[in-house]
Write a structure and sequence with these properties.
The protein is mainly α. Among the domains are: 78 residues, no CATH class; 72 residues, no CATH class. The protein contains 15 helices and six strands. The strands form three sheets. It has a two-stranded antiparallel ribbon. It has a two-stranded antiparallel ribbon with strand order 3-4. Strands 5-6 form a two-stranded antiparallel ribbon. The longest helix is centred in the first third of the chain and has 19 residues. The N and C termini lie far apart (114 Å).
Amino acid sequence: MLIAPLAVAAVVGGGYTTWNNLSARRSCLSCHEIAPAYDTWVNSAHRKLACKDCHGTAASNGLHSLREKSRMVLVHYFGKPPQEIRPNETQVLEIMDRCSGCHRSQQADWLRSGHSATYASIFLNQTHNRTERLYADCLKCHGMFFGGGIADLVEPLDTKGPWRLKRTDQAGRPVIPCLTCHKIHSRGEPATPPDYSSPQTITAQRKESPSPLVWYDRYTGLHLRSEDIVMPAISDGGRIVQVSDDHRQRACTQCHAPDPFGEAGTSDDRTPKGVHEGISCLACHSAHSQETRLSCGGCHPAISNCGLDVTKMDTTFRGRNSRHNIHFVKCADCHVRGVPQKKFAKTRKPNR
């Protein structure tokens, strides 16, 4: 009596194992909806990883995975399948957890940065909510993978409160997961060892890697490469602000953007002006932790010819209550009586 069930289990288990070990061409790619993702993955730095390493298997999450994969099969054959398959927020967070298996230091840096904020910390912030009413575009930067509108997430939508999340399961979820700025299938080359026989040429022979920085557009469902994003015009009292040509900054300004008039320092804009005008965000901010504590010394060492330790000056670098925001500080902000003229050493007369 047990032979039949054992035989079925053996066939199912063998088929499941075989399927998970097949190449993408013979398994996932058999569904034409997967083709666009495969075409980018095969040219990416992750192309040596199997699909299941990031996306899991049909049983990786137990019954939840089985239900999900069964629904996909039914939609494929009996419904109207999408032209391109895109992960929902739950799947994005599952992929993110698997990212940390290889990118542990990056995940740790992200966790202690402001970008690890949760839905509760953003949408239940009383100070902000009393100042500005929550509206649809909040999800453009905070919760771009959320599968609904702002009215489906929080209530009431006013400046009186008290506010609560209608979807309590969202409270601890991050609003800016890895896939906000990174695309798993983005182009790139797997790392390879250099030619150790010629150490002096290692740096010169190293290939320049394309920037992994993208920005996820909630409205189109697409990851836009930072190189393809148009930098908005930033002005300062009618004067056009010089902006860094580092294309990675264009992704930053999609969320850290000025008001509709493009005035520097408005809304959440952090575009440098003043003494730091033209400097890239990534020149000071570490990519994942956003740490800036070590950046000033790179340009302003205490042993420089000016003899000043800029980390001790009255700016927001030293203390958040300073009147001098490090992004916008000008020489005249501190030198209210005028900027001192530089003293140049007298030129020695040549010997005759």
